[in-house]
Amino acid sequence: MAHHNTFFVCTLLIFSLSFHGTDSALNFEVINQAAQTPGGMKFDQQLGIPGAKEILAQVNDFIWNEVLEQTTPEDRIPMDHIEVLILENIVGGDGVASANHINVSAIFFQREPDIKHGFRHLMSHEMTHCLQWNGEGTTPQMLVEGIADYTTLRAKTVDRARFEKPGDGEKWDQGYHITALFLEYCDTVTPSFVAKLNKMMRKKYDVGYFKEITGKPVEQLWSDYKAKYGGKLETKYGRKDIA
Length: 243
Ligand SMILES: [Zn+2]
Fold this sequence. Notes:
Neutral Protease, domain 2; 2 domains; 4-stranded mixed sheet; 10 helices
């Protein structure tokens, strides 16, 4: 009898672990509309629909749990599925997201040496757009892009050596990597800064949220950040102040 109980407990444990590890609450639909193109064929051969869905579920869990810390359905944008379309080409980049749709260019797969890694990286950025609050459209677009790139830093899909360094940039809201690196710094001032900022941007945006969260206005944070890394860069790379 004891033997049976042990077996039962182990089975439950394995079930709950696997459920937690692989199953996200969102459903994913992936459609390859470029299956006849070189990139679309490479996608089918090296990743395929099931492989893509597995990565999408992992990215989804990572954004909800680790990046935006939206651990309950009430914290999240109401959504039950995300549709990913692979198209022959899209204007202006590798991927684009709006609401619960993500379009990916087949040319991206054609170009990427490691498409599993590349897809995880691209989806970390694009899916953040699907899941982040943007103050009902009032959050500055470059902050929105900074948060999406911040996810890729957190997911460690970025080769940091190839991009801007901490302390780089002219303005905190320059967008993409510049803003993402600054947001990482803000996390060191107040833990979970980005998750807290995202939560506050549910209905509207106010630059004062930076001060509400950290006690310092954004300009102060930016100059502290520049001062912190400006010195470091000068020593390490023999560069003068890059501001
Ligand atoms: Zn973006």
